[in-house]
């Protein structure tokens, strides 16, 4: 390109920059303001989740007027967005469904989706937030053939708003929770994949998960979360039915053994008593 033409192009670029640059400060301020407001709304969503959990633990109804006064405050124009995002969080992570029971006074309650699909022992021994998270992980493991890669588990947790290395406002460090806490409590098994180099890991159900819930209950929970029915997953449903039958047979066998032992003990006591009388 001729030198004179290059000089003209540079001059044109400088004029263009001079025209654009005065507009940038205002645009930057608007962007910053929007970013700050979005940050405040995100904080309100977090506070709303805490508020809903607090009301659930107290077994109190949730009123719109109270939410506006105690949580939303000056962000009333964003009330529906904040409530919707908080409700999605409650459902996805905690298994709690926000239901409006009085549309005139705008009164809500939280319904525990796990009450029907979880063993009471699981709910009683792990607080509600962790129970929902655990059931979701157990569901992923079941749906992946009873053994899920760590990568697959994290894909599910990411959808739920939990990320490796990012502290969660309810759960703290998610990696510690799923690879150490729940493993130490025997709800999950976390092991290295054989012959993997570099090493990769996978999750399985732990002993307490097998003892305190069932494949059918986990499938029911996952179906409820996705607003479906267990039979929508035919192969998993059949496997869960087989698991129920095997558990029923195991319980029947255990009762039969207990009855046989009790009968043998009773016979031994009766025999011993009879022998003593003859002596």
TrEMBL record:
Official protein name in the record: MAGE domain-containing protein
Matching InterPro entries: MAGE (IPR037445), MAGE_WH1 (IPR041898), MAGE_WH2 (IPR041899), MHD_dom (IPR002190)
Pfam annotation, one family: MAGE
One cellular component term from this protein's GO annotations in UniProt: nucleus
GO BP term (any one): negative regulation of transcription by RNA polymerase II
Region of interest (Disordered), residue spans: 1-33
MAGE domain boundaries: 41-240
Lineage: Eukaryota, Metazoa, Chordata, Craniata, Vertebrata
């Amino acid at each position: 390109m001729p030198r004179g033409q290059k000089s003209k192009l540079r001059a044109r670029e400088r004029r263009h920059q001079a025209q654009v640059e005065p507009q940038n400060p205002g645009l930057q301020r608007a962007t910053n303001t929007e970013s700050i407001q979005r940050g405040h709304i995100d904080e309100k969503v977090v506070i709303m989740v805490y508020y809903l959990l607090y009301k659930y633990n107290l077994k109190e109804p949730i009123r719109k007027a109270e939410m506006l006064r105690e949580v939303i405050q000056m962000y009333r124009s964003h009330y529906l967005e904040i409530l919707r995002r908080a409700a999605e969080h409650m459902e996805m992570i905690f298994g709690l469904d926000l239901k409006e029971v009085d549309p005139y006074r705008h009164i809500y309650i939280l319904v525990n989706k796990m009450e029907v699909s979880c063993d009471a022992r699981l709910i009683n021994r792990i607080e509600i937030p962790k129970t929902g998270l655990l059931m979701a992980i157990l569901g992923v493991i079941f749906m992946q053939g009873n053994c899920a890669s760590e990568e697959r588990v994290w894909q599910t947790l990411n959808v739920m708003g939990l990320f490796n290395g990012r502290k969660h406002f309810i759960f703290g460090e998610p990696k510690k929770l799923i690879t150490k806490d729940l493993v130490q409590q025997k709800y999950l098994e976390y092991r290295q994949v054989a012959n993997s180099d570099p090493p990769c890991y996978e999750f399985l159900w732990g002993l307490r998960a097998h003892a305190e819930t069932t494949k059918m209950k986990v499938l029911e929970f996952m179906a409820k979360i996705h607003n479906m029915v267990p039979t929508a997953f035919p192969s998993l449903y059949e496997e869960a039915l087989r698991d129920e039958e095997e558990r029923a047979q195991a319980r029947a066998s255990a009762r039969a053994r207990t009855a046989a032992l009790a009968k043998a003990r009773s016979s031994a006591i009766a025999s011993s008593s009879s022998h003593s009388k003859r002596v």
